[in-house]
Amino acid sequence: MKNADYIYAVASIRVKEKSLLSDTDIQTLIGMKDKKDILQFIKEKGWGSDSSENDIDKVFSAEEKKVGNILESLKVDESIIDVLSYDKKYHNLKAAIKEVCTANEDMKAFYSLDDLSGEMLLKVLKENDYEKLPEHMRKVAAKAKELMLTTRDGQRLDIMVDRACLDATEAVAKQSRDKFISDYAESKVAMADIKIAVRAASTKRKRSFLEEALAPCQSLDVSKLADAAADSLEAVYSFLEKKGYGDAVNAIKESYSSFEKWCDDHIMSGLMGEKHNTMGSGPVVAYYLARQNEIRTVRIIVTAKENGFPEETIRERVRKMYG
């Protein structure tokens, strides 16, 4: 689709944006007593498929189904829908490889995807029919299955498939003619690389691990990032500060959950400019990602309440809203 072709879709999204949860709404939810109060609040915001529904998990499921239909209903290009589901697709690949190699099938381990379902991936792997996979997954699927069969090393499998997911995302960042998608994909890879480097430095991983796990990225010199992470966490701090990520350093020093929140908020901040665009895929995709973010955030709040976490701890974990 050309930018002008999205005018109707953007107009529709502008109406939907009015019902998004705001940061104020999230603070209200954090202050509530329990999930019963939270359920009532989100139902009043239009969540769920039935106003009489009193099962919060069913309400979440209904909202996730609504979100899943947004892009197709507004006729967003399939190539854009594809890259937005890379995380889930590569997760399904990891789950399928582990199940094929351990003969322990559990369909609950898979995301529900029409094109790369658990059933489809299990069949492909059992028959070595890799041509049925997207081109960017074929090589790693074969290599990762062989690794798992010979070593049973689930951690190395995760590293290998996660790196392939990042490489595929970075390829989109380089090749997409859609600037919004290109920028979003690049930001995803950069944040993932920074997370890997921080974890590696904290656990004193060797540079060989970093070379295997870090994906090439246009906005970061991953070779220098790997050098820093192999040296020390302080060296990573210095690298990030030089790249203008001083706020990330402050978040890391506060706690790892604060740092993960910062990474997600950084990506969300990149979406904010789409509120003022009238054409292109950006406003539609930004809304789609915003809805995913608010559902995930409300889930975090409910889980925290059920586990007796104090409000201060919950605030440390909740993400920035688009609304």
Provide an overview of this structure.
By secondary structure, the chain is an all-alpha fold. 71% of the residues lie in helices and 0% in strands. It contains 17 helices and no strands. Helix 8 (135-151) runs antiparallel to helix 9 (154-175) and helix 13 runs antiparallel to helix 14 (246-254). The model has no long low-confidence stretch (mean pLDDT 93).
Topology pattern, helix = H, strand = E: HHHHHHHHHHHHHHHHH
* β-strand number: 0
Helical segment count: 17
First CA to last CA: what distance? 26 Å
What is Rg? 21 Å
Report the sheet-strand fraction.
under 5%
Note poorly predicted spans. none
Averaged pLDDT? 93
Largest sheet: none
Helix content: over 70%
Shape: globular
- Class from secondary-structure proportions: mainly alpha
Question: How do the helices and strands line up, and which of them pair or pack?
Answer:
Elements: H1 7-17, H2 23-30, H3 35-44, H4 56-73, H5 78-84, H6 86-102, H7 118-127, H8 135-151, H9 154-175, H10 179-202, H11 207-213, H12 222-231, H13 233-242, H14 246-254, H15 256-271, H16 282-306, H17 311-317
Helix pairs in contact: 4-16, 6-7, 6-8, 6-9, 8-9, 9-10, 10-12, 10-15, 12-13, 13-14, 14-15
Short description:
With 323 residues, the chain is an all-alpha fold. The protein has 17 helices and no strands.
Jot down its keywords.
mainly alpha, globular, single chain, 323 residues
